[in-house]
Each structure stands twice: as C-alpha cells, then as structure tokens.
Amino acid sequence: MIIACPACSTRYVVPDSAIGVDGRTVRCANCKHSWFQTGAALPEREEPQDQAPPPVASAEAVPAPEPQSTEPVAQPQPRATRPIAGDRAVEVDNSAVSPFAHEPPFRPRRNPAKLWTIVTLVFALSVGGAMAAVNRFGLPAWLPIAHQTFGATRPDLELSFPPEKQDRRTLPNGKEYYGASGTVTNVGKDVREVPPILIVLRDSKNQVVYTWNVMPPKDVLKPGESETINEAVTDVPKTARFAEIGWKPE
C-alpha cells in the first residue's frame, strides 16, 4: 500500500502486513512526524450471479474463519524497503507497538587506555610526593628498614675502647650503671678534627635499648696525639648486655 505523510506529503510504499488491518502509528523518516495510519480496506466479496436459494446446511458445517487478533505485535515491524522514486523510507514508531518489547540494557563503553593513564598519573604523583618527603624529613622510624647506626670512618682517627675497660653494674641505690673508657688517636700526618662519639647499648636480641653522645675533650688532634675518654651514665635499661662505640652520624 502507498501512504503519505500528512505533514510533508512524502509518500512511501509499505507492505500491507506492516500496517495491519487495524492500522498503527508510523513516523515519517523525512520530517519525523508521527500519525496513525489506518489499515487497508478488506476487498468486498463478490455476490454470486445466480440468485439461487442458500443451500441447506449439511451435517458437516465448514467452520467460520477465526477473527484476526487486534492485539499489537510485540516485535517491531520491519521498515519499508521500497520507497517511491525520490521519496525516503518510512520509519515505524515502535513506541506504539507494545510496552513489553525487549530493550537491551546499553552501557557506555569503557576506555582502558584512559583508565591506565589515570592510574599511572596517580602512581607517579604518589611516588614523587613520597620521595620529596623522604628527602626533606628522612625515613620514618617505624619503617622496617635497617638504619645506619654509626657515621663513616674518619681518616687517620682511631677509636680504642677495650671490653675490659667497660663497666656494667647495679648501684646500691638500685640504679643501673655503665661506664666506658677509651682513647682517640690521630695516626696520620695531618691535623684532624675529632667529631662526637656515639655509644650504643644493645640487649641479648641485638636490639638498641640505649644511646648517648660523647663530646671529645679536644676538637682537634695533632699527628700522633692521643686523648683519653671516660664516660659513665646511670638509669640504663636492665636489658642492656653489651656496647658498641663509633662515630656519631652527621
């Protein structure tokens, strides 16, 4: 059948089955106007030429044809594919077909490249911030990382604190006492500055339990010159078992 848009007069050729006997709502592909298109009229039945009396119904009656269903079709009808020359194809308005028609749940596509770019940028910013914090404040004490206990070795300066000159005992008042005696010697040929000395007490598990700094009696030693150091502290932890002595880190 041929239908025409009442708004722009564009004509279309569509199958009769697409409109149906009861008609349906269609939409113009040219101007997007929607209207209700009535169905094609049923052909009139030809009257018989002979006006013979109607035959007597026999025992085997022919069943009457079933009426066509007027319910709307659940699936969308195909669009017309044979437009008149110069016209456009008609679009059937599927919104009037059935409220139970299936509509797939469309989701926006994900962009993996964009997601990886964001993750990389966040990671780079985090690493950069962590490195800046370490350079400014140093590593936090709670990190399970081995920290440097003593400073670097000093050229031409020797520390000598023999174990027999280290005193560890409990005083009569109940306090824990530790004393250390030793020497610092300049074995080189040039004058050397003497940095602070660090004494570290450790327990039986080699854990640091006490530290203190010792300032040498002289800041500078001449070649071959030696200086004696005697230091003692009280209230050290009872778990302290041995001492380590070296240069204080800068």
Provide tags for this entry:
250 residues, alpha+beta, Immunoglobulin-like, 4-stranded antiparallel beta sheet, 3-stranded antiparallel beta sheet, 27% strand, rod-shaped
How is this structure best described in words?
With 250 residues, the chain is an alpha+beta fold. Among the domains are: 1-41 and 71-102, no CATH class; 157-247, Immunoglobulin-like. Helix content is 12%, strand content 27%. The chain is built from 2 helices and 14 strands, in the order E-E-H-E-E-E-H-E-E-E-E-E-E-E-E-E. Strand 3 (24-27) and strand 4 (34-37) form a beta hairpin. The longest helix has 26 residues, at 112-137. Residues 57-64, 69-90 and 96-104 have low confidence and may be disordered.
How would you briefly describe this protein structure?
By secondary structure, the protein is of the alpha+beta class. It contains two helices and 14 strands, in the order E-E-H-E-E-E-H-E-E-E-E-E-E-E-E-E.
